[in-house]
Amino acid sequence: MVYSLYKLSTGIIHGSVDLPNEDYIESYLLDDDGNLVNGYVEGSYQINNFQVVDNQVIPYQVPINCILWVREQRNVLLKNSDWTQNNDSPLSESKKSEWAIYRQTLRDLPAQYNENDEINNVVFPDKPTWFYMQMVYKYQT
After folding, report:
1. From the centroid of its chain, how far is CA 132?
2. Sign of CA dihedral 113, 115, 117, 119
3. At 15, phi and psi to the nearest 5?
4. pLDDT confidence bin for 131, thresholds 50/70/90
5. Separation between Cα atoms, residue 141 and residue 126, nearest integer Å
6. Which one of 4, 35, 92, 138 is most buried, by most CB atoms within 10 A?
7. Whether pLDDT at 22 is above 90
8. For the packed helices 66-80 and 93-108, what is the interaxial angle rounded to 10 degrees?
9. How many Å apart are CA 94 and CA 48, to the nearest integer?
10. What is the reported pLDDT for 132?
């Protein structure tokens, strides 16, 4: 019979053993000091891709560090808006100022979250309008 082993602290499956029966599994559950550190479930599950939660085997999803994710997204948004602050930018001074405020809000964003926050709850600031919309309006009138 194949048994999958999981860490009691995380539930993440980290190995499997093929034993004649359940009576032989105890030695796989204890650490060198005799402490119970592992649990087991019947069946073969891919290591690091499954975890045990409430005695149920479910796919394991690596938790996302919210701060790192926010920084990555923010960096892309900052890079994509660098042009708004260039000397040769077609934006008016008031629009440049709006974009500067937007960019500063992006820089301040990671401080509003901690690493365990859900990324679905992250709120990014709205981008200011840019010159294309102004140009379309200008040429339509």
Report:
1. 34
2. positive
3. 180, 175
4. low
5. 27
6. 4
7. no
8. 160
9. 52
10. 53
Quickly tell me which residue has 């499956």 as its tokens: 13
Contact between residue 119 and residue 138 where contact means Cβ atoms under 8 Å apart: no
| Contact predicate 80/102, CB 8 Å | no
Tens of pLDDT, residues 65-75? 999 999 999 99
Provide the 8-state DSSP code for 83: G
Torsion of CA 93, 99, 103, 106, to 10 degrees: 150
Distance between CA atoms of residues 74 and 59, nearest Å: 29
- State the pTM of this model: 0.56
Find out whether 10 and 38 touch, Cβ atoms under 8 Å.
Answer: no
Return all residues near 11 (Cβ < 8 A) that are at least 6 apart: 39, 51, 52, 53
pLDDT band at 120 (very low <50, low <70, confident <90, very high): confident
Residue whose pair of structure tokens reads 């479930």 in the numeric block: 41
Are residues 21 and 1 in contact, defined by beta-carbon separation less than 8 angstroms? yes
Helix (H), strand (E) at residue 7:
strand 2-7
Residue 97, classed as helix, strand or coil, is helix
